[in-house]
Please model this.
Amino acid sequence: MLKITNLHARIEDEPEGEILKGLDLQVNPGEVHAIMGPNGSGKSTLAYILSGRDGYEVTEGSVSFEGDDLLEMEPEERAAAGVFLAFQYPIEIPGVANMYFLRTALNAIKKTRGEPEVDAATFMKMLRQHAEVVGVRSDLLKRDVNAGFSGGEKKRNEILQMAILQPKLAILDETDSGLDIDALRTVADGVNQLRSPDRGIVVITHYQRLLDYIVPDHVHVLVGGKIVRSGDKSLALELEEKGYGEALAAAGVASPEPALNA
Amino acid sequence: MTTTAIRRLEPASGYALLFDRLKGGLAGSGAARASSFKRFAELGFPTTRTEAWKYTNLKPLAEVAPSAPVPAEVSLADLDGYLLTGDVRRLVFVNGHLAPDLSDIARLPSGLRVKTLLECVEAEASLLADVDADRALTALNAAFAQGGAVIEVEAGVTIDPVIQLIFVDAGDDAAMLTNVRNRVSLAAGARLRMAETHLVLGTGSITNVVNHFNVADEAELLSDKVQIGTKASRAFGQSVIQVGKNAKFGQTTIGVGGALVRNESLAKLEGPHGDLDLNGTYVPEGGEQVDTVIRVEHLAPNCESNQFYKGVLLSGGHGVFAGKIFVDQVAQKTNAYQQNDNLMLSRDAEIDTKPELEIYADDVKCSHGATVGELDETGLFYLRSRGIDRQTAEAILTFAFAGEVVERLHHEDSQHQARRALLGRLRGGDKLMELV
Model:
């Protein structure tokens, strides 16, 4: 489904600072991959490059999604193709009602795919069902997108968007950050409901905690712009115990921070 | 050469010719009309050397040979989409003259008087008095104005129906000069909501409006103003606003279209605890210029004033915002705020924004802010990452930007009108009409 080969990338205005330095990753339908790594390892850069944000330059390598060159596609084309990014910091859009935004997005995607658009009544029914599952209160649907939402409400709203848009590949960028344990559980429940044999999920996280609730099939350690280790879910537990120090040392990078549980 | 010579633009002979032609038919005192015209001719149009007109070239206006308003056939169907619904009384003026068939001021509640300028001006010459003696366009208006409304609300009366004044310029002569003068007076404790709708249905025109709002102690006047122009229309407006003790005046202006649109407000907070709210949004595109010029005078203590203006500058559009807050020495405990935010959607758009404070009291809270920016790239990416194309994403964010002003219109129908007009302007806006 997703095949990343030898991906090198940097921020456009910073020619010296390569952030991704030869990243390889393959995600097949039905798999949940966790990408773990310390701050500054390139986790968010990877998420942004996959979803098509401006400001990054790919200098080498390729990304194919279902056989197409993902890097050639505009962000909205990627969304229509089935790529979804749950933002680490969801954006507030004052003046645009959440449910209007969601329906516009859904219908834009359907239109691009040549599918019939969803009428307001059908959409409302669908929205209410999903909102209940991911714990988004109905008043938040009428409010402006993320405006004045708490950190947890914003993250749940991301998962709600994901549930509505039903992507083939979902990338969750630090979805656990800023969540208390109850919010974390609700968000994880929402994600788990979306696990399906047709869908790939990439969970990007700094901490192992989220992976107690979204149990991954594969865990990768991203350090210094490369995946330095891959394993099953036990790798996450090992990292939780030992921190990233060993992985950093193996990658020849000095530890920028103390071990996680130090 | 004296400086006066540099600071005035001689009106073309067409103005005097027009006055000579029309003066026999102008209502009210002929001497007063002649004196106003003389005043206008002496003042001449201001040049860009006059601070308040620095960014606005009136040379094309000075050089025009203005023509007289002519009768035009306008039906209610032509006003479709602009008629307020619900409990409304309306006066419609076509090319500066009352259109009785389109107007409906029957069943006025007691305590409310709605007349036309023409009905009142013989008995009350002060209706055309210069509310601003140094402004040439105001003198021009006093010389020619035949149309307009005179509205009075008795003390202590709250008026339920909304009064809508519709001014339609129709025809294919962009040099047609229409002058309108309105006066709205609320006696102590009165309350009124109104809407001013300015529509140019033909090619264009030159509209010159002067409004006088007098809001006495404890009274409240809320007004929506929607201006729809054309590529060739020019609209000049001056509102003189007097706010008494514990009184409130609020106005929100939405303008779309017009080669040159200039809204000037001169507001005086004359009694303690007065409250003034002025909001507006402008969306000039190719070749259009919209000026907002405001002077708020705090002349009594404990008053509050807010100016909140947002501009969307499209390709080739030019916006001017000049807002001044003047705080007199006696006006202690003044709260005066001004915010002007501008969104530049093109590199060839222009905005000139100039906030000004002049404060003579020492215990006041005054602030002003002006911002000029582009659409937030992160916001655009967020929308696009959800499948919304770039053009639609830009339209959504732009609409949301102006929306904060739109929601300050007091009448829901005014909000619909404003949203429709805004979306009609934005590329990709036609796909978002559901947001109206």
